[in-house]
Amino acid sequence: MNRVVVIILGILAVVIASLLGLVIVPNWQFEEMQPVEIVSADGSQTVYPVALDRWREAPGREMYRSLGCIYCHSQQVRPEGFGADFERGWGQRRSVPRDYVLQSPPYLGTMRTGPDLANIGARQPTEQWHLLHLYDPQITSIGSTMPPFKFLFEKHLGSEPTTSPGTLAIQLPNAYAGQPTWIIPKKEAMDLVAYLLTLHQKHDLEDVK
């Protein structure tokens, strides 16, 4: 009987210690953290990180979650010496907690079936690249194992279609389509791309040193 009590107390101690060390204390430290003002070499000032706008970027983040992107992509550059993130060009510095201060929850991810996306907005800064990549990754990244997301687009054959203001029409490469073919992204695709373009950890922070 005494041994049972000791085992139960031991289990409770482990659970409480884990809760404190892995959840409560890190959350307390994170809540104290705020965006910082950064002064560039040319004297210009900016605040980092910046909150997502609620029109496209925030809905795009929700699309990122709902499509399960987090299951194949991480958003965290590991420190030098812990993997080959720098050699792969996934970032210029390691990620730090302040990079995620306005994200709830942060989509750090653990799987890397695809490349890390912490800086995808800096590596691929154009809407067109991301839209073509979403339509069919083979167009921009031959050999990619990422599935196509063609349901986020409408397709039009022939001459360039007339679209409403603010809506893109992108012609597929002839080598891919074989005939003049245009894709028109739906709002969900534009939202997702707007979010992806916000992903960059390009500012030097004191936290990194």
From TrEMBL:
Q: Which PROSITE patterns match?
A: CYTC
Record's keyword terms, sorted: Heme, Iron, Membrane, Metal-binding, Transmembrane, Transmembrane helix
What residue ranges are annotated as transmembrane?
6-25
Asked if Magnesium is a keyword of the record, the answer is: no
Residues forming the Cytochrome c domain are 55-200
Does the record bear Cytoplasm in its keywords? no
An example molecular function term from Gene Ontology annotations: electron transfer activity
Q: Which domain of life is it from?
A: Bacteria
What protein am I looking at?
Cytochrome C oxidase, mono-heme subunit/FixO
Give the source species.
Answer: Gimesia algae
Record lineage: Bacteria, Pseudomonadati, Planctomycetota, Planctomycetia, Planctomycetales
